[in-house]
Amino acid sequence: MIKIIYSYNAENVGVSAAKVMADVIKNKPDAVLGLATGSSPIGMYSELIKMCKNGEISFKDVRSVNLDEYVGLSKDHDQSYSYFMHKNLFDHIDIKEENTNLPCGLCKDPEAECKRYDKVIESMGGIDIQVLGIGNNGHIGFNEPSDYFSLGTGLVQLTDSTIDANSRFFATRDMVPTQALSMGVGQIMASNKVLLIAIGEGKAEILEKALFGKVTPQVPASILQFFKGEVVVCADRAALSVIMKKHPEAVKAN
Ligand code: F6R
What we know:
Elements (H helix, E strand, L loop, with lengths): L1 E6 L2 H18 L4 E4 L6 H12 L9 E4 L1 E3 L10 H8 L11 E2 L8 H14 L5 E4 L21 E4 L2 H7 L12 E4 L2 H5 L3 E6 L5 H9 L17 E7 L4 H6 L4 E3 L1
Parallel strand pairs: 1-10, 1-11, 2-3, 2-6, 3-5, 6-9, 9-10
Antiparallel strand pairs: 4-8, 7-8
Helix pairs in contact: 1-2
This protein binds fructose -6-phosphate (F6R).
């Protein structure tokens, strides 16, 4: 079931997405959180930090697995996803460092690293909630448009459109890594709940295509239409503009 929650702006998206996450943590203090990076979840992370600081929630028994990491960037590189997670969440909450997991971007043997990460995910006994953003091309994690849906963690070649989109964080386009390690679509689909966050007009077309169009690996996020549990979509009015025009009945006000 897909539940679309409309928020007026990005700030309100952060608040409503944080509520969804907080409910999971309150119900299960040792929840396994599947986490994402990028601009979409930043507002949610800052709300979760506030909730943790005011004692509403605690991450002391929470475990986390991130979706992806760039190949070639060390943990302390300021564009690595490990650095991002520490800066935007982990350093400000009571989560234990040893309970946080990301693929290693500097691994010598990507194949072995993918296997290791598969084992990490498996050993957690299931992801309680998986946070996702959506790429301009419909990717989830770094699962780019393809002829098939990936099952487990894999080494992926980033598409030009993803490299273009992510070059906004780097001094020059040449500095954007061209490969990443990403959790597979199969692992995302095995989680108990999905929280998809989309902000801004740039996501409006692809969000409609993913949630209402044909299910195809050419739009990886479209597989969420087949998700067994609940997919909560927290999005702002700009990201929902096409959906509100074509499927107004599907959108719930926050
Ligand atoms: C990030 C990730 C990506 C992003 C997507 C959207 O860990 O896996 O799929 O969620 O590229 O990025 P933003 O939020 O920056 O628009």
